[in-house]
């Protein structure tokens, strides 16, 4: 009799034959920094996650470095918002200050250790900076309704990319799902001499209900939805097409977001991509597990690890998760 169960008989045997393994370097920790805070502000919908001050951001990056986490993804929340998101590319704006703080903190935390620190990544989008909460510049559409102007938004994205690169971002991550965004950003960076700055493209980003808690995290002012530019959750082939376009435009990495409800898309993108593939375990995925665990309905640690292993098994090389620090400690 063939007995596959022999390879499951003990913890050490299961560890030996495991087909999928997590490493701290696979993980990226998203971090929110809010202008004007005097102390970190906990998020009600995301237990354990906070909006950071500049000082607590430096501490969080140092913790990520100590845990061996592969990267940090920065999101800035300004005090002032306007129609074009002018603070997004202000050299002294909150996100660009955060980039400089994170680079310094990562360098200081690893000085003399011989260990690499986390890669500093910056979200490249206007939604946190606009008073209307959309990911781009608005204009009047054919029927008089306001719509996002794709090409005018690209001008703003190029400017954001330059200020983020100048602040020290190692990776810029365009998340707005504008057509042509990767090509425009790559050209702007290269023309300015920032040829070493990488682009992590949010390639297949779906208009998802699972982003709800993120709205609190960034103090979103959005009214309505983003379905005219983020992807329809019914579409699989379109996600592959978007990834192919970003690859053709020069993306250094591509992403599928959210992760858990789009593992089929993630697996297919990973199969066809010749660059690293990322997946974002989003705020709603985090909040659901935390809520169920708080009620005693599931084992928290087991559910967290299983959810992230599933993303890794589907083909993600890089996983953005709010549990990055805890997971890194668990698997150390």
UniProtKB/TrEMBL annotation:
Upper taxonomic lineage: Bacteria, Bacillati, Actinomycetota, Actinomycetes, Micrococcales
Lyase in keyword set: yes
Catalytic function, reaction form: 2 5-aminolevulinate = porphobilinogen + 2 H2O + H(+)
Keyword Lyase: yes
Domain of life: Bacteria
Subunit structure and binding partners: Homooctamer.
Pathway noted in the entry: Porphyrin-containing compound metabolism; protoporphyrin-IX biosynthesis; coproporphyrinogen-III from 5-aminolevulinate: step 1/4
Keywords from the named record: Heme biosynthesis, Lyase, Porphyrin biosynthesis
Function: Catalyzes an early step in the biosynthesis of tetrapyrroles. Binds two molecules of 5-aminolevulinate per subunit, each at a distinct site, and catalyzes their condensation to form porphobilinogen.
Family affiliation: Belongs to the ALAD family.
A molecular function GO annotation: porphobilinogen synthase activity
Pfam family, one: ALAD
Record-listed E.C. numbers: 4.2.1.24
PANTHER family, sorted: DELTA-AMINOLEVULINIC ACID DEHYDRATASE
Protein name: Delta-aminolevulinic acid dehydratase
């Amino acid at each position: 009799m063939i007995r596959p169960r022999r390879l499951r008989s003990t913890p050490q045997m299961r560890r030996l034959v495991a087909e999928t393994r997590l490493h701290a370097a696979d993980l990226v920790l998203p971090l929110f920094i809010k202008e004007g805070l005097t102390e970190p502000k906990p998020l009600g919908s995301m237990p354990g996650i906070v909006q950071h001050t500049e000082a607590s951001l430096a501490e969080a990056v140092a913790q990520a470095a100590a845990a061996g986490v592969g990267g940090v993804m920065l999101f800035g929340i300004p005090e002032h918002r306007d129609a074009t998101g002018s603070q997004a590319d202000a050299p002294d704006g909150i996100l660009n200050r955060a980039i400089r703080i994170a680079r310094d903190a990562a360098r200081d935390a690893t000085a003399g250790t011989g260990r690499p620190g986390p890669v500093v990544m910056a979200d490249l989008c206007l939604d946190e900076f606009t008073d209307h909460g959309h990911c781009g510049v608005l204009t009047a559409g054919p029927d008089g309704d306001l719509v996002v102007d794709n090409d005018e938004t690209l001008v703003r994205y190029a400017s954001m990319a330059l200020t983020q690169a100048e602040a020290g971002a190692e990776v810029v991550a365009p998340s707005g799902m504008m057509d042509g965004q990767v090509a425009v950003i790559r050209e702007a960076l290269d023309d300015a001499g920032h040829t070493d700055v990488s682009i992590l493209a949010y390639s297949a980003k779906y208009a998802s209900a699972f982003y709800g808690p993120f709205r609190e995290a960034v103090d979103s002012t959005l009214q309505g939805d983003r379905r005219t530019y983020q992807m329809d959750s019914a579409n699989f082939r379109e996600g592959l097409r978007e990834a192919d376009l970003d690859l053709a435009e020069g993306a250094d990495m591509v992403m599928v977001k959210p992760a858990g409800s789009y593992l089929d898309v993630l697996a297919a993108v990973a199969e066809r991509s010749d660059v690293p593939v990322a997946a974002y375990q989003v705020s709603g995925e985090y909040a659901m597990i935390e809520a169920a665990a708080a009620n005693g309905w599931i084992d928290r640690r087991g559910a967290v690890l299983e959810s992230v292993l599933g993303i890794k098994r589907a083909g993600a090389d890089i996983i953005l998760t709010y549990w990055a620090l805890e997971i890194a400690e668990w698997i150390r």
